Amino acid sequence: MTAVQVEPTTPPAGRTPGRRLAAGRRKLTMPALHVLFVAAILGVWQYASGRWIDPLLVASPSTIAVRLYQWLGNGTLWQNLRPTLIALLAGFVIGVIVALAAAVLFVEVAPLGRFFETYILALGAVPFVALAPLLIIWFGLGLEPKIVVAALTTFCSFFANAFTGLRETSPDLLELGRILHASRRQRLTKIQFWDAMPYLISGVKQSLPRAVFAVIVIEFLASNKGLGYLITSSGNNLDMPGLFGAVLVLVIVTQGLLFLVRLAEQRLLVWQPRERR
Amino acid sequence: MSTRPATASASTPDPAAARPGPAAQPHGAIVATGIEHTYSLAGTSAGQPVVALARTDLVVQPGEFVSLVGPSGSGKTTLLNILAGLLTPTRGQVTITGANPAGAGVPVVGYMTQHDTLLPWRTALRNVAFPLELARTPKQERLTRAAGLLDRVGLAGFAGHYPHQLSGGMRQRVSLARALIYGPPVLLLDEPFGALDGTTRLALHQVLAGVCNDLGTTVLLVTHDLAEAVSLSDRVLALAPRPGRVVREFTIPRRAGPHEVRDIYSEPELIALHNELREV
Protein backbone atom coordinates (compact mmCIF):
# COMPACT_ATOMS: atom_id res chain seq x y z
CA MET A 1 0.00 0.00 0.00
CA THR A 2 1.22 3.49 -0.77
CA ALA A 3 2.14 5.33 2.38
CA VAL A 4 -0.64 7.79 3.03
CA GLN A 5 0.68 11.17 4.00
CA VAL A 6 -1.80 13.45 5.58
CA GLU A 7 -2.07 16.99 6.79
CA PRO A 8 -1.44 17.46 10.49
CA THR A 9 -4.45 15.94 12.15
CA THR A 10 -4.06 17.00 15.76
CA PRO A 11 -7.46 18.10 17.00
CA PRO A 12 -7.62 21.86 17.48
CA ALA A 13 -6.65 22.85 20.97
CA GLY A 14 -9.65 23.24 23.24
CA ARG A 15 -10.21 26.24 25.43
CA THR A 16 -7.34 26.94 27.74
CA PRO A 17 -8.06 26.82 31.49
CA GLY A 18 -7.71 30.61 31.65
CA ARG A 19 -10.28 31.16 28.94
CA ARG A 20 -12.61 28.62 30.48
CA LEU A 21 -12.42 30.45 33.80
CA ALA A 22 -13.14 33.77 32.13
CA ALA A 23 -16.08 32.28 30.26
CA GLY A 24 -17.37 30.74 33.49
CA ARG A 25 -17.10 34.08 35.24
CA ARG A 26 -19.04 35.74 32.41
CA LYS A 27 -21.70 33.04 32.73
CA LEU A 28 -22.09 33.85 36.43
CA THR A 29 -21.83 37.62 36.11
CA MET A 30 -24.60 38.11 33.57
CA PRO A 31 -27.47 36.50 35.59
CA ALA A 32 -26.23 38.27 38.72
CA LEU A 33 -26.43 41.61 36.90
CA HIS A 34 -29.97 40.82 35.75
CA VAL A 35 -31.06 39.95 39.29
CA LEU A 36 -29.54 43.18 40.59
CA PHE A 37 -31.23 45.23 37.88
CA VAL A 38 -34.70 43.75 38.50
CA ALA A 39 -34.24 44.11 42.28
CA ALA A 40 -33.31 47.79 41.83
CA ILE A 41 -36.40 48.44 39.66
CA LEU A 42 -38.66 46.69 42.18
CA GLY A 43 -37.03 48.61 45.05
CA VAL A 44 -37.55 51.99 43.39
CA TRP A 45 -41.12 51.02 42.40
CA GLN A 46 -41.94 49.91 45.96
CA TYR A 47 -40.42 53.07 47.43
CA ALA A 48 -42.27 55.32 44.98
CA SER A 49 -45.60 53.57 45.52
CA GLY A 50 -47.75 55.66 47.88
CA ARG A 51 -45.27 58.54 47.65
CA TRP A 52 -45.17 59.53 43.98
CA ILE A 53 -47.35 56.80 42.49
CA ASP A 54 -51.05 56.40 43.34
CA PRO A 55 -51.50 52.75 44.48
CA LEU A 56 -55.09 52.86 43.21
CA LEU A 57 -53.72 53.29 39.69
CA VAL A 58 -50.46 51.33 39.89
CA ALA A 59 -50.17 48.52 42.44
CA SER A 60 -46.95 48.20 44.41
CA PRO A 61 -44.74 45.10 44.03
CA SER A 62 -45.53 43.97 47.57
CA THR A 63 -49.33 44.07 47.03
CA ILE A 64 -48.90 42.20 43.73
CA ALA A 65 -46.83 39.55 45.52
CA VAL A 66 -49.48 39.25 48.26
CA ARG A 67 -52.26 38.87 45.67
CA LEU A 68 -50.34 36.20 43.76
CA TYR A 69 -49.67 34.38 47.02
CA GLN A 70 -53.41 34.46 47.84
CA TRP A 71 -54.28 33.18 44.35
CA LEU A 72 -51.75 30.41 44.71
CA GLY A 73 -53.26 29.42 48.05
CA ASN A 74 -56.93 29.44 47.03
CA GLY A 75 -56.33 27.85 43.60
CA THR A 76 -57.45 30.89 41.57
CA LEU A 77 -54.13 31.07 39.74
CA TRP A 78 -54.08 27.45 38.61
CA GLN A 79 -57.82 27.46 37.73
CA ASN A 80 -57.18 30.31 35.30
CA LEU A 81 -53.69 29.43 34.14
CA ARG A 82 -54.65 25.87 33.22
CA PRO A 83 -57.30 26.64 30.52
CA THR A 84 -55.06 29.30 28.95
CA LEU A 85 -52.11 26.90 28.78
CA ILE A 86 -54.23 24.04 27.45
CA ALA A 87 -55.82 26.21 24.73
CA LEU A 88 -52.49 27.76 23.83
CA LEU A 89 -50.47 24.53 23.63
CA ALA A 90 -53.23 22.54 21.91
CA GLY A 91 -53.84 25.28 19.33
CA PHE A 92 -50.12 25.83 18.82
CA VAL A 93 -49.31 22.14 18.32
CA ILE A 94 -52.25 21.67 15.93
CA GLY A 95 -51.23 24.79 13.98
CA VAL A 96 -47.60 23.65 13.67
CA ILE A 97 -48.49 20.10 12.59
CA VAL A 98 -51.04 21.21 9.99
CA ALA A 99 -48.71 23.94 8.66
CA LEU A 100 -45.83 21.47 8.39
CA ALA A 101 -48.02 18.91 6.61
CA ALA A 102 -49.30 21.60 4.21
CA ALA A 103 -45.76 22.84 3.55
CA VAL A 104 -44.56 19.29 2.77
CA LEU A 105 -47.54 18.75 0.44
CA PHE A 106 -47.00 22.03 -1.40
CA VAL A 107 -43.25 21.48 -1.75
CA GLU A 108 -43.70 17.90 -2.98
CA VAL A 109 -46.52 18.79 -5.38
CA ALA A 110 -44.98 21.91 -6.84
CA PRO A 111 -47.91 23.05 -9.05
CA LEU A 112 -50.22 22.83 -6.04
CA GLY A 113 -47.72 24.87 -4.03
CA ARG A 114 -47.42 27.54 -6.72
CA PHE A 115 -51.23 27.83 -6.92
CA PHE A 116 -52.05 27.95 -3.21
CA GLU A 117 -48.93 29.75 -1.94
CA THR A 118 -50.38 33.20 -2.61
CA TYR A 119 -53.61 32.43 -0.77
CA ILE A 120 -51.93 30.93 2.27
CA LEU A 121 -49.40 33.72 2.56
CA ALA A 122 -52.28 36.22 2.26
CA LEU A 123 -53.94 34.48 5.20
CA GLY A 124 -51.03 35.76 7.31
CA ALA A 125 -52.47 39.25 6.95
CA VAL A 126 -55.89 38.22 8.32
CA PRO A 127 -56.28 39.26 11.97
CA PHE A 128 -57.97 36.11 13.21
CA VAL A 129 -58.74 37.70 16.57
CA ALA A 130 -61.17 39.89 14.60
CA LEU A 131 -63.12 36.68 13.97
CA ALA A 132 -63.47 36.15 17.72
CA PRO A 133 -67.20 37.05 17.89
CA LEU A 134 -67.89 34.58 15.09
CA LEU A 135 -65.82 31.82 16.70
CA ILE A 136 -67.55 32.42 20.05
CA ILE A 137 -70.95 32.09 18.36
CA TRP A 138 -69.81 28.88 16.68
CA PHE A 139 -67.98 27.23 19.58
CA GLY A 140 -69.33 28.87 22.77
CA LEU A 141 -67.31 30.10 25.75
CA GLY A 142 -65.18 27.02 26.39
CA LEU A 143 -61.73 26.03 25.20
CA GLU A 144 -62.76 25.47 21.59
CA PRO A 145 -62.75 29.05 20.20
CA LYS A 146 -59.40 29.70 21.91
CA ILE A 147 -57.85 26.53 20.45
CA VAL A 148 -59.20 27.38 16.99
CA VAL A 149 -57.87 30.93 17.00
CA ALA A 150 -54.47 29.83 18.40
CA ALA A 151 -54.23 27.12 15.72
CA LEU A 152 -55.19 29.50 12.90
CA THR A 153 -52.74 32.17 14.05
CA THR A 154 -49.93 29.62 14.45
CA PHE A 155 -50.70 28.01 11.09
CA CYS A 156 -50.45 31.26 9.15
CA SER A 157 -47.32 32.41 10.91
CA PHE A 158 -45.51 29.05 10.86
CA PHE A 159 -46.51 27.98 7.35
CA ALA A 160 -44.51 30.69 5.58
CA ASN A 161 -41.33 29.65 7.40
CA ALA A 162 -41.86 25.92 6.92
CA PHE A 163 -42.75 26.29 3.23
CA THR A 164 -39.77 28.53 2.49
CA GLY A 165 -37.36 26.37 4.49
CA LEU A 166 -38.41 23.12 2.83
CA ARG A 167 -38.59 24.62 -0.65
CA GLU A 168 -35.17 26.23 -0.49
CA THR A 169 -33.20 23.13 0.38
CA SER A 170 -29.71 23.41 -1.07
CA PRO A 171 -29.72 21.88 -4.60
CA ASP A 172 -26.35 20.30 -3.82
CA LEU A 173 -27.83 18.41 -0.89
CA LEU A 174 -30.78 17.30 -3.01
CA GLU A 175 -28.31 16.03 -5.60
CA LEU A 176 -26.51 14.13 -2.85
CA GLY A 177 -29.83 12.43 -2.06
CA ARG A 178 -30.14 11.40 -5.71
CA ILE A 179 -26.56 10.14 -5.84
CA LEU A 180 -27.15 8.02 -2.75
CA HIS A 181 -30.55 6.79 -4.00
CA ALA A 182 -32.41 8.24 -1.01
CA SER A 183 -36.14 7.48 -1.04
CA ARG A 184 -38.58 10.41 -1.05
CA ARG A 185 -39.22 9.92 2.64
CA GLN A 186 -35.50 9.75 3.44
CA ARG A 187 -34.91 12.92 1.41
CA LEU A 188 -37.62 14.71 3.36
CA THR A 189 -36.75 13.50 6.84
CA LYS A 190 -32.98 13.23 6.62
CA ILE A 191 -32.11 16.14 4.32
CA GLN A 192 -34.87 18.71 3.76
CA PHE A 193 -36.28 18.74 7.29
CA TRP A 194 -32.84 19.30 8.83
CA ASP A 195 -31.78 21.81 6.23
CA ALA A 196 -34.98 23.75 7.01
CA MET A 197 -34.45 23.56 10.79
CA PRO A 198 -33.33 27.22 11.21
CA TYR A 199 -36.53 28.31 9.40
CA LEU A 200 -38.68 26.00 11.53
CA ILE A 201 -37.19 27.27 14.80
CA SER A 202 -37.64 30.83 13.61
CA GLY A 203 -41.28 30.00 12.75
CA VAL A 204 -41.89 28.66 16.26
CA LYS A 205 -40.34 31.78 17.82
CA GLN A 206 -42.54 34.05 15.71
CA SER A 207 -45.81 32.17 16.05
CA LEU A 208 -45.75 31.35 19.76
CA PRO A 209 -46.18 34.95 21.06
CA ARG A 210 -48.86 35.54 18.39
CA ALA A 211 -50.77 32.47 19.58
CA VAL A 212 -50.54 33.73 23.20
CA PHE A 213 -51.90 37.10 22.10
CA ALA A 214 -54.77 35.46 20.18
CA VAL A 215 -55.83 33.29 23.14
CA ILE A 216 -55.72 36.22 25.57
CA VAL A 217 -57.82 38.40 23.28
CA ILE A 218 -60.53 35.71 23.08
CA GLU A 219 -60.44 35.48 26.87
CA PHE A 220 -60.78 39.27 27.10
CA LEU A 221 -63.85 39.21 24.90
CA ALA A 222 -65.88 36.33 26.18
CA SER A 223 -64.65 33.82 28.67
CA ASN A 224 -65.25 32.79 32.25
CA LYS A 225 -61.81 31.31 32.83
CA GLY A 226 -58.23 31.99 31.81
CA LEU A 227 -55.50 34.57 32.33
CA GLY A 228 -57.22 36.99 29.94
CA TYR A 229 -60.41 36.65 31.97
CA LEU A 230 -58.43 37.20 35.19
CA ILE A 231 -56.95 40.43 33.78
CA THR A 232 -60.30 41.85 32.64
CA SER A 233 -62.21 40.81 35.77
CA SER A 234 -59.47 42.33 37.98
CA GLY A 235 -59.63 45.51 35.92
CA ASN A 236 -63.42 45.65 36.13
CA ASN A 237 -63.18 45.34 39.95
CA LEU A 238 -60.40 47.96 40.11
CA ASP A 239 -58.22 45.27 41.67
CA MET A 240 -54.86 46.72 40.62
CA PRO A 241 -52.69 44.10 42.41
CA GLY A 242 -54.76 41.38 40.70
CA LEU A 243 -54.51 43.01 37.29
CA PHE A 244 -50.76 43.52 37.54
CA GLY A 245 -50.31 40.03 39.00
CA ALA A 246 -52.20 38.37 36.14
CA VAL A 247 -50.20 40.33 33.54
CA LEU A 248 -47.00 39.32 35.32
CA VAL A 249 -48.01 35.65 35.21
CA LEU A 250 -48.77 36.01 31.49
CA VAL A 251 -45.32 37.50 30.84
CA ILE A 252 -43.66 34.74 32.86
CA VAL A 253 -45.59 32.03 30.98
CA THR A 254 -44.74 33.49 27.55
CA GLN A 255 -41.09 34.03 28.39
CA GLY A 256 -40.90 30.58 29.97
CA LEU A 257 -42.19 28.98 26.79
CA LEU A 258 -39.79 31.03 24.66
CA PHE A 259 -36.96 30.01 26.97
CA LEU A 260 -37.82 26.35 26.31
CA VAL A 261 -37.81 27.08 22.57
CA ARG A 262 -34.38 28.71 22.87
CA LEU A 263 -33.09 25.67 24.78
CA ALA A 264 -34.39 23.43 22.00
CA GLU A 265 -32.81 25.75 19.44
CA GLN A 266 -29.41 25.49 21.10
CA ARG A 267 -29.67 21.74 21.00
CA LEU A 268 -31.07 21.42 17.49
CA LEU A 269 -28.79 24.01 15.89
CA VAL A 270 -25.61 23.01 17.71
CA TRP A 271 -24.09 22.32 14.27
CA GLN A 272 -24.30 25.97 13.19
CA PRO A 273 -21.34 28.28 13.69
CA ARG A 274 -21.99 30.22 16.91
CA GLU A 275 -22.19 33.58 15.12
CA ARG A 276 -25.09 32.33 12.96
CA ARG A 277 -27.17 31.08 15.89
CA MET B 1 -6.37 -5.03 -13.62
CA SER B 2 -5.82 -3.70 -17.11
CA THR B 3 -2.70 -4.30 -19.10
CA ARG B 4 -0.79 -1.07 -19.33
CA PRO B 5 1.78 -0.06 -21.95
CA ALA B 6 5.26 0.56 -20.62
CA THR B 7 5.61 3.90 -22.30
CA ALA B 8 3.46 6.87 -23.02
CA SER B 9 1.26 6.30 -26.02
CA ALA B 10 1.29 8.63 -28.96
CA SER B 11 -1.74 10.82 -29.18
CA THR B 12 -4.29 9.95 -31.84
CA PRO B 13 -5.52 12.77 -34.03
CA ASP B 14 -8.71 10.96 -35.03
CA PRO B 15 -11.24 11.20 -32.17
CA ALA B 16 -12.93 7.99 -33.25
CA ALA B 17 -9.66 6.11 -33.13
CA ALA B 18 -8.93 7.58 -29.71
CA ARG B 19 -12.00 5.94 -28.21
CA PRO B 20 -11.47 2.53 -26.75
CA GLY B 21 -14.15 0.46 -28.41
CA PRO B 22 -16.52 -1.54 -26.26
CA ALA B 23 -16.15 -4.48 -28.61
CA ALA B 24 -12.46 -4.68 -27.78
CA GLN B 25 -12.96 -4.35 -23.99
CA PRO B 26 -16.57 -5.20 -23.29
CA HIS B 27 -16.21 -6.03 -19.61
CA GLY B 28 -14.87 -2.76 -18.21
CA ALA B 29 -15.82 -1.35 -14.85
CA ILE B 30 -17.31 1.55 -16.82
CA VAL B 31 -18.70 0.92 -20.27
CA ALA B 32 -20.37 3.80 -22.12
CA THR B 33 -21.50 3.03 -25.64
CA GLY B 34 -22.42 5.76 -28.08
CA ILE B 35 -23.61 8.16 -25.43
CA GLU B 36 -24.75 11.58 -26.56
CA HIS B 37 -26.49 14.36 -24.70
CA THR B 38 -28.37 17.37 -26.00
CA TYR B 39 -30.56 19.82 -24.16
CA SER B 40 -32.63 22.90 -24.91
CA LEU B 41 -31.63 26.15 -23.29
CA ALA B 42 -34.53 27.85 -21.55
CA GLY B 43 -35.47 30.96 -23.52
CA THR B 44 -33.95 29.86 -26.81
CA SER B 45 -36.09 29.11 -29.80
CA ALA B 46 -37.32 25.56 -30.14
CA GLY B 47 -35.34 23.34 -32.48
CA GLN B 48 -31.99 24.79 -31.39
CA PRO B 49 -30.73 22.10 -29.03
CA VAL B 50 -27.29 22.44 -27.50
CA VAL B 51 -25.07 19.39 -27.91
CA ALA B 52 -23.41 19.04 -24.50
CA LEU B 53 -21.76 15.77 -25.39
CA ALA B 54 -21.30 14.37 -28.91
CA ARG B 55 -21.28 10.62 -29.48
CA THR B 56 -18.77 9.14 -27.05
CA ASP B 57 -17.59 5.64 -26.24
CA LEU B 58 -15.67 4.98 -23.08
CA VAL B 59 -14.35 1.86 -21.40
CA VAL B 60 -12.50 1.99 -18.12
CA GLN B 61 -11.02 -1.24 -16.84
CA PRO B 62 -11.40 -2.38 -13.23
CA GLY B 63 -8.80 -0.73 -11.03
CA GLU B 64 -7.86 1.82 -13.68
CA PHE B 65 -7.42 5.53 -12.91
CA VAL B 66 -8.58 7.72 -15.80
CA SER B 67 -8.70 11.51 -15.91
CA LEU B 68 -10.85 13.73 -18.11
CA VAL B 69 -9.38 17.11 -18.91
CA GLY B 70 -10.65 19.90 -21.08
CA PRO B 71 -11.92 23.46 -21.01
CA SER B 72 -15.26 24.50 -19.56
CA GLY B 73 -18.16 23.39 -21.72
CA SER B 74 -16.46 20.27 -23.02
CA GLY B 75 -19.00 17.98 -21.39
CA LYS B 76 -16.87 16.57 -18.56
CA THR B 77 -19.44 17.04 -15.82
CA THR B 78 -22.25 15.99 -18.16
CA LEU B 79 -20.38 12.74 -18.84
CA LEU B 80 -19.87 12.15 -15.11
CA ASN B 81 -23.53 12.87 -14.35
CA ILE B 82 -24.56 10.37 -17.03
CA LEU B 83 -22.21 7.74 -15.60
CA ALA B 84 -23.59 8.39 -12.10
CA GLY B 85 -27.15 7.90 -13.36
CA LEU B 86 -28.11 11.49 -12.52
CA LEU B 87 -28.68 12.36 -16.15
CA THR B 88 -30.25 10.19 -18.83
CA PRO B 89 -28.30 10.46 -22.07
CA THR B 90 -30.20 11.42 -25.20
CA ARG B 91 -28.67 8.39 -26.87
CA GLY B 92 -26.46 5.50 -25.88
CA GLN B 93 -26.04 3.13 -22.96
CA VAL B 94 -24.02 3.06 -19.77
CA THR B 95 -23.16 0.16 -17.53
CA ILE B 96 -21.16 0.25 -14.33
CA THR B 97 -19.80 -3.21 -13.55
CA GLY B 98 -22.57 -4.55 -15.74
CA ALA B 99 -25.44 -2.62 -14.10
CA ASN B 100 -27.37 0.39 -15.29
CA PRO B 101 -26.45 3.12 -12.75
CA ALA B 102 -29.84 4.84 -13.03
CA GLY B 103 -31.84 1.64 -12.63
CA ALA B 104 -29.88 0.08 -9.79
CA GLY B 105 -31.69 0.14 -6.46
CA VAL B 106 -28.49 1.00 -4.61
CA PRO B 107 -25.74 3.40 -5.66
CA VAL B 108 -23.13 1.64 -7.82
CA VAL B 109 -20.75 4.58 -7.99
CA GLY B 110 -19.20 6.85 -5.40
CA TYR B 111 -19.49 10.43 -6.60
CA MET B 112 -17.73 13.50 -5.25
CA THR B 113 -19.22 16.54 -6.97
CA GLN B 114 -17.62 19.98 -7.35
CA HIS B 115 -19.69 21.34 -4.50
CA ASP B 116 -19.40 20.77 -0.81
CA THR B 117 -22.21 18.37 0.00
CA LEU B 118 -21.42 17.50 3.60
CA LEU B 119 -24.54 17.71 5.72
CA PRO B 120 -23.77 20.61 8.09
CA TRP B 121 -25.93 19.21 10.90
CA ARG B 122 -24.03 15.92 11.05
CA THR B 123 -20.63 15.28 12.56
CA ALA B 124 -17.84 13.99 10.33
CA LEU B 125 -18.52 10.44 11.54
CA ARG B 126 -22.27 10.64 10.89
CA ASN B 127 -21.65 12.25 7.48
CA VAL B 128 -19.47 9.32 6.47
CA ALA B 129 -22.05 6.85 7.81
CA PHE B 130 -24.94 8.62 6.01
CA PRO B 131 -25.07 6.38 2.89
CA LEU B 132 -25.20 3.30 5.10
CA GLU B 133 -27.99 4.87 7.14
CA LEU B 134 -29.98 5.33 3.93
CA ALA B 135 -29.31 1.69 3.12
CA ARG B 136 -30.64 0.79 6.62
CA THR B 137 -27.39 -0.78 7.80
CA PRO B 138 -27.50 -1.41 11.58
CA LYS B 139 -26.26 1.60 13.54
CA GLN B 140 -23.32 -0.09 15.26
CA GLU B 141 -22.03 -1.54 12.01
CA ARG B 142 -22.28 1.69 10.06
CA LEU B 143 -20.57 3.74 12.77
CA THR B 144 -17.76 1.20 13.07
CA ARG B 145 -17.20 1.21 9.31
CA ALA B 146 -17.34 5.00 9.17
CA ALA B 147 -14.82 5.32 11.99
CA GLY B 148 -12.47 2.91 10.19
CA LEU B 149 -12.67 4.88 6.95
CA LEU B 150 -12.21 8.21 8.74
CA ASP B 151 -9.09 6.75 10.29
CA ARG B 152 -7.90 5.72 6.83
CA VAL B 153 -8.22 9.22 5.44
CA GLY B 154 -6.32 10.60 8.43
CA LEU B 155 -9.20 12.09 10.40
CA ALA B 156 -9.44 9.71 13.35
CA GLY B 157 -9.39 12.58 15.86
CA PHE B 158 -12.16 14.54 14.15
CA ALA B 159 -15.09 12.14 14.18
CA GLY B 160 -17.15 14.42 16.44
CA HIS B 161 -16.43 17.65 14.55
CA TYR B 162 -19.11 19.40 12.51
CA PRO B 163 -18.23 20.42 8.92
CA HIS B 164 -17.87 24.11 9.83
CA GLN B 165 -15.18 23.12 12.32
CA LEU B 166 -13.07 21.44 9.61
CA SER B 167 -10.69 22.91 7.03
CA GLY B 168 -11.38 22.62 3.29
CA GLY B 169 -8.95 19.71 2.95
CA MET B 170 -10.48 17.88 5.89
CA ARG B 171 -13.96 18.33 4.48
CA GLN B 172 -12.82 16.80 1.20
CA ARG B 173 -11.37 13.85 3.10
CA VAL B 174 -14.72 13.35 4.82
CA SER B 175 -16.45 13.55 1.42
CA LEU B 176 -14.01 10.98 0.02
CA ALA B 177 -14.64 8.64 2.95
CA ARG B 178 -18.40 9.05 2.49
CA ALA B 179 -18.14 8.31 -1.23
CA LEU B 180 -16.29 5.07 -0.46
CA ILE B 181 -18.21 3.86 2.61
CA TYR B 182 -20.54 1.55 0.71
CA GLY B 183 -17.66 0.05 -1.26
CA PRO B 184 -18.56 1.26 -4.76
CA PRO B 185 -16.45 -0.39 -7.47
CA VAL B 186 -16.25 2.95 -9.31
CA LEU B 187 -15.44 6.39 -7.93
CA LEU B 188 -16.33 9.49 -9.96
CA LEU B 189 -14.56 12.70 -8.93
CA ASP B 190 -15.58 16.07 -10.35
CA GLU B 191 -12.77 18.53 -9.60
CA PRO B 192 -12.69 17.56 -5.95
CA PHE B 193 -9.45 19.37 -5.23
CA GLY B 194 -10.06 22.50 -7.27
CA ALA B 195 -10.53 24.83 -4.31
CA LEU B 196 -7.59 23.56 -2.24
CA ASP B 197 -4.11 24.98 -1.86
CA GLY B 198 -1.16 23.12 -3.42
CA THR B 199 0.10 21.43 -0.26
CA THR B 200 -3.31 20.18 0.81
CA ARG B 201 -3.97 19.02 -2.71
CA LEU B 202 -0.77 16.93 -2.81
CA ALA B 203 -1.62 15.39 0.55
CA LEU B 204 -5.08 14.51 -0.73
CA HIS B 205 -3.60 12.92 -3.85
CA GLN B 206 -1.72 10.54 -1.56
CA VAL B 207 -4.83 9.82 0.46
CA LEU B 208 -6.89 9.17 -2.67
CA ALA B 209 -4.30 6.92 -4.28
CA GLY B 210 -3.72 5.01 -1.05
CA VAL B 211 -7.37 4.40 -0.22
CA CYS B 212 -8.35 3.49 -3.78
CA ASN B 213 -5.39 1.12 -3.97
CA ASP B 214 -6.50 -0.63 -0.81
CA LEU B 215 -10.07 -0.96 -2.01
CA GLY B 216 -9.25 -1.70 -5.67
CA THR B 217 -11.51 1.13 -6.77
CA THR B 218 -11.75 2.26 -10.40
CA VAL B 219 -11.45 6.05 -10.57
CA LEU B 220 -12.63 8.57 -13.15
CA LEU B 221 -11.39 12.05 -12.30
CA VAL B 222 -12.45 15.32 -13.92
CA THR B 223 -9.86 18.03 -13.45
CA HIS B 224 -8.60 21.27 -14.94
CA ASP B 225 -5.17 20.62 -13.49
CA LEU B 226 -3.11 18.83 -16.15
CA ALA B 227 -0.25 18.06 -13.75
CA GLU B 228 -2.76 16.45 -11.38
CA ALA B 229 -4.14 14.35 -14.23
CA VAL B 230 -0.68 13.18 -15.34
CA SER B 231 0.62 12.47 -11.86
CA LEU B 232 -2.38 10.36 -10.79
CA SER B 233 -3.69 8.63 -13.89
CA ASP B 234 -3.14 5.58 -16.04
CA ARG B 235 -4.86 7.34 -18.92
CA VAL B 236 -5.85 10.91 -19.64
CA LEU B 237 -8.67 11.76 -22.04
CA ALA B 238 -8.68 15.27 -23.48
CA LEU B 239 -12.08 16.70 -24.32
CA ALA B 240 -12.90 19.64 -26.59
CA PRO B 241 -15.97 21.89 -26.35
CA ARG B 242 -18.91 22.68 -28.68
CA PRO B 243 -19.80 19.94 -28.93
CA GLY B 244 -18.13 18.18 -26.02
CA ARG B 245 -16.16 15.20 -27.29
CA VAL B 246 -12.99 13.19 -26.62
CA VAL B 247 -10.27 14.39 -28.97
CA ARG B 248 -7.12 12.73 -27.65
CA GLU B 249 -6.09 9.95 -25.36
CA PHE B 250 -2.80 9.67 -23.52
CA THR B 251 -1.54 6.58 -21.73
CA ILE B 252 0.75 7.34 -18.81
CA PRO B 253 3.66 4.95 -18.25
CA ARG B 254 3.55 3.24 -14.87
CA ARG B 255 6.50 2.06 -12.84
CA ALA B 256 5.20 0.89 -9.48
CA GLY B 257 1.86 -0.51 -8.34
CA PRO B 258 -1.54 0.84 -9.29
CA HIS B 259 -2.68 4.31 -8.19
CA GLU B 260 0.75 5.70 -7.56
CA VAL B 261 1.24 9.45 -7.31
CA ARG B 262 4.00 10.48 -9.71
CA ASP B 263 6.20 13.50 -9.34
CA ILE B 264 5.90 14.69 -12.92
CA TYR B 265 8.64 17.31 -12.56
CA SER B 266 11.30 14.66 -11.85
CA GLU B 267 10.47 12.58 -14.91
CA PRO B 268 11.28 14.09 -18.30
CA GLU B 269 8.83 11.92 -20.21
CA LEU B 270 6.01 13.03 -17.97
CA ILE B 271 6.99 16.66 -18.45
CA ALA B 272 6.88 16.10 -22.22
CA LEU B 273 3.49 14.47 -21.88
CA HIS B 274 2.25 17.32 -19.73
CA ASN B 275 3.41 19.86 -22.31
CA GLU B 276 1.79 17.93 -25.13
CA LEU B 277 -1.45 17.77 -23.17
CA ARG B 278 -1.28 21.49 -22.54
CA GLU B 279 -1.00 22.15 -26.25
CA VAL B 280 -4.08 20.02 -26.91
Description:
Chain A has helices at residues 17-48, 61-74, 76-108, 110-123, 132-139, 143-167, 171-179, 184-195, 197-221, 227-236, 240-268. Chain A has 277 residues and is an all-alpha fold. Chain A has a domain at 90-269: MetI-like fold, CATH 1.10.3720. Chain B has 8 helices and 9 strands. By secondary structure, chain B is of the alpha/beta class. In chain B, the strands form 2 sheets. A 6-stranded mixed sheet of chain B has the order 5-6-7-3-8-9, with helices on both faces. The chains are: A mainly alpha (277), B alpha/beta (280). At the A-B interface, helix 7 and helix 8 of A face helix 3, helix 5 and helix 6 of B.
Task: Summarize this structure briefly.
Chain A has 277 residues and is mostly helical.
Explain the layout of strands and helices.
The complex is a heterodimer of chains A (277) and B (280).
Chain A: H1 17-48, H2 61-74, H3 76-108, H4 110-123, H5 132-139, H6 143-167, H7 171-179, H8 184-195, H9 197-221, H10 227-236, H11 240-268
Chain B: H1 15-18, E1 30-39, E2 50-60, E3 65-69, H2 76-83, E4 91-96, E5 109-112, H3 124-134, H4 139-152, H5 168-180, E6 186-190, H6 198-215, E7 218-222, H7 226-232, E8 235-240, E9 245-251, H8 268-279
Parallel strand pairs in B: 3-7, 3-8, 5-6, 6-7
Antiparallel strand pairs in B: 1-2, 1-4, 8-9
Helix pairs in contact in B: 3-4, 3-5, 4-5, 5-6, 7-8
The radius of gyration of chain B is 19 Å
CATH-defined superfamily of the domain at 90-269 in chain A: MetI-like
CATH domain fold name of the domain at 90-269 in chain A: MetI-like fold
CATH homology group of the largest domain in chain B: P-loop containing nucleotide triphosphate hydrolases
From the N-terminal CA to the C-terminal CA of chain B, the straight-line distance is 28 Å
Oligomer: heterodimer
Query: Spans of chain B with pLDDT under 50 lasting ≥5 residues?
Result: 1-26
Query: Which strands sit side by side, in order, in the main sheet of chain B?
Result: 5-6-7-3-8-9
Number of domains of chain B: 2
Shape of chain B: globular
Q: Biggest protein-protein interface?
A: A-B, 31 and 49 residues
Question: What is the CATH architecture annotation of the largest domain in chain B?
Answer: 3-Layer(aba) Sandwich
